[in-house]
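Re-run with default settings, no changes from the original entry. Doing this only to confirm the output is reproducible before filing.
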Amino acid sequence: MPPRSIAIWALTPNAAQMAGRLAAVLGESLVYLPRDLEAAFPARRFERLAHAVGREFRSHRGHVFIMSTGIVVRLIAPWIRHKTEDPAVVVLDETARHAVSLLSGHVGGANALAREVADLLGAKAVITTATDLNQVPAIDVLALERGLIIENPAAIKAVSMALLRGAPVGLHDPFGMLAAALPPGQVRPLGLGGGEGFADVFAPGVFVDDICVDLPTEILVLRPGSLAAGLGCNRGTAAEEMGALLARTLEDHHLAAASVTVLASVDLKADEAGLHELARRLGRPLKYFSRQALNGVGTVPTPSAAARKHIGVHSVCEAAALLATDMGSLVATKRKSRNATVAIARRNSMS
């Protein structure tokens, strides 16, 4: 689970007072102070600021530094990776005049954090991202708000620049997750080809789908959480076997692994170690259904005589996948390995 708390850092007595004041109203937050600095509120202590920041940088979803911007830039520089991975960083002056969004303004949430801090303390939020200043939709923020996974963040720049210039942007959005949030006068169909997929694609553009196709680098690929994987297995089946079967099935059907949001099975497998290990490795939840619920699905493409004989259900993986998508549609029917079965279903709607 990603971190939720905000770290508040201070070095001087005045900054420490401001940190305590902010922590009292900000919510989930922790104050970090030098070991020798007195404070009348709980705080975590550090000997060396640079070491403490490096240790805690990814332990929080955001950081508020009550100190000079120059100090903060030097502190965080060794730990910056990418705007889709870095936590929010906000710089606040000791007199609470300005709350500056410094790092990860969009996906990391620094712009929102700066505004929140400013509202709480009566400061002015300093936002420098071009899309915010020009009141243009930020495509990475829209993706985050709608639970879309950004597959190729390098393409964000091309789409954002087109939106800023008022230029046309291609869009493929069969679930209707983005269309209403983009300027209608700028949106164009991305361009559908023949049976092989996409051709003569309108770029730059945005592709919102769970299918895998070759696209130009200027197309931002966003993955919706539209798929569920139903799994069946013999007792003691290893996570490696189930994972390999799932990966092959997704690849053969040109489906994006990032769009699989849940693994599903029969409740008799709730103690199956291999399933739990696979879910842990993939970072996906497990959902179990009773035999009554599975049999209530009705006809499936590939019923199982073995499942009916041993546990009294006509289907595990296909029925579980359908139930996990609120009776969507099967896009990959049952595939088998020596000890496991898998099927993939897609939700009919993402609303």
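Residues 108 and 218 are 22 Å apart (CA to CA). Residues 13-26 form the longest helix (14 residues).
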